[in-house]
Amino acid sequence: MKILQGFVLTAAVAFLAVGQPLPATQAETLTGRKLTIPQAFGAKPAILVWSFSKKAGEATRAWTDPLIRDGQAVWSVAMLEAAPRFVRPMIRSGMRKDMPAAQQDHAVLLYQGEKQWRQILKPPKDDDPLVVLLDGNGNVAWSFSGLSSPKAMEEVRQRLKSLAK
């Protein structure tokens, strides 16, 4: 394996299927804490809600808020590499203003590796959040692209219950 700009790549970059491990990536939270995902999640299941656009970012709260109320380990992941460098502090500031302080340490900001993540995650639509459920080993257990709905929310809750067994 090679580490490229804080992103661990395997020889073949392909769609991340169920059972595959999430590649290790260095990141920073909205509070400024440095971490490596998925190791930062410990040996417990985690839900990552990815956004590759402002519109998708705005739609992540419909996923994260109910799951946080359920007591789940939920992380929002904002891909900001495409944003011009001079705009990034304004984006970060706006995110902090709009997000409760208790959730800010679970908001991950990625400033590099967007091309690789797009190859791995294959987000169908930039304007939709991409929900990835990881098992306790950092392997993909389930993924879903789209807006939160009662049916989709029930699906992720059921999948979490099955991982807890």
Write structural notes for this entry.
The chain has helices spanning 54-59, 61-69, 88-98, 114-121, 150-164; strands at 2-4, 7-9, 25-29, 34-37, 46-51, 74-79, 107-110, 130-134, 140-145. The protein is of the alpha+beta class.
Characterize the overall form.
globular
Could you give the distance between the termini? 33 Å
Multimeric organization: single chain
- Widest β-sheet, arrangement of strands: 4-3-7-6-5-8-9
Instruction: State the major sheet.
Output: 7 strands, mixed
Number of strands: 9
Mean pLDDT: 87
Low-confidence stretches: 1-15
The helix tally amounts to 5
Instruction: Work out the strand percent.
Output: 25-35%
Structural class: alpha+beta
Fraction in helix:
25-40%
Compute the gyration radius: what is it?
15 Å
H-E string: EEEEEHHEHEHEEH
Briefly, what is this?
With 165 residues, the chain is α+β, with helices and mostly antiparallel strands.
Features:
disordered N terminus; two-stranded antiparallel sheet; alpha+beta; single chain; globular; 165 residues
Write the layout of secondary structure elements.
Blueprint: E1 2-4, E2 7-9, E3 25-29, E4 34-37, E5 46-51, H1 54-59, H2 61-69, E6 74-79, H3 88-98, E7 107-110, H4 114-121, E8 130-134, E9 140-145, H5 150-164
Parallel strand pairs: 5-6, 6-7
Antiparallel strand pairs: 1-2, 3-4, 3-7, 5-8, 8-9
